[in-house]
Specification:
The chain has a single domain, classed as Aminoglycoside 3'-phosphotransferase, Chain: A, domain 2 (Alpha-Beta Complex). It is built from eight helices and ten strands. The longest helix has 21 residues.
Length: 249
């Protein structure tokens, strides 16, 4: 090891890599503890916890490469996507973790607040925000909770030889809507949903998945803009919102 790499850093948390070790530093009082508990309970491959001394957590690396990145086509094979689907199904069929999930009322309140901000401050046409808010409300129907990852971005799933080697970043793990995990993994990669479902199973609510695509893109936009990320980059959140509007017209 001859250098330390800053993987991500903003005013909420930072992740550093030193050789084969990742060190996460988080100012939230419980987020890292939730991550450790969720990884312990999840019946699927996760990074090894090396040590946890708040506000820091050290984890081992996992082999392989991420399933893809937002804003670029995934180079992973359909078989790798199907393997991810099988692994997510295993998680969703596991016993619920013993802590509460996020109330739908809180999700709805966030959706309304962020849409009002977008209408007032973003370059998006108002009709685009309004139509996607209508679509997003389809995610607010109560569904039986399952054990979800809670932030299953495509960069958090690692594969090698068409098998999942590990899933990282469990700070949002807990009870929740299974369709949320499926939606977040395919956000910006909607064309890979069928590959994912080949492993997960097709007994899903596709309307809810689509609704979560809109809701996630709407509610993440302000945070991304305020933390130096670009939701208007090709293939990212604003493109998802545009595609959703085209599909609904």
């Amino acid at each position: 090891m001859d250098e330390v790499e800053v993987v991500v850093a903003h005013d909420e948390r930072a992740t550093l890599r030193a050789g084969e070790v990742f060190v996460k530093i988080d100012g939230h009082p419980t987020r890292l503890a939730t991550e450790v508990r969720a990884m312990h309970l999840a019946p699927i491959p996760t990074p090894e916890v090396l040590w946890h001394e708040p506000p820091a957590l050290a984890l081992s690396t996992v082999p392989g490469a991420a399933l893809g990145v937002l804003g670029a086509p995934s180079e992973a094979s359909p078989a790798a996507w199907a393997a991810a689907g099988r692994m997510i199904r295993r998680l969703h069929e596991a016993p619920l973790p013993p802590w509460p999930g996020r109330p739908l009322a809180d999700v709805e309140a966030e959706l309304e607040k962020e849409c009002e901000w977008l209408l007032a401050h973003s370059p998006l046409p108002s009709e685009l925000v309004v139509r996607n808010r209508e679509i997003a409300r389809g995610a607010l129907e109560p569904r039986p909770p399952v054990f979800i990852h809670g932030d299953l971005q495509i960069t958090h799933v690692f594969v090698e030889d068409d098998e999942v080697t590990g899933i990282i970043d469990w700070s949002e793990g807990g009870p929740g809507d299974a369709m949320y995990d499926l939606a977040i993994l395919t956000l910006g990669h909607e064309e890979r949903l069928e590959d994912l479902l080949a492993g997960y199973g097709t007994d899903v609510d596709r309307g809810a998945i689509r609704a979560w695509w809109s809701l996630r893109s709407l509610t993440a936009a302000r945070w991304l803009l305020e933390h130096g990320f670009d939701p208007d980059a090709p293939g990212c959140e604003f493109d998802v919102l545009r595609a959703q509007m085209r599909e609904s017209s």
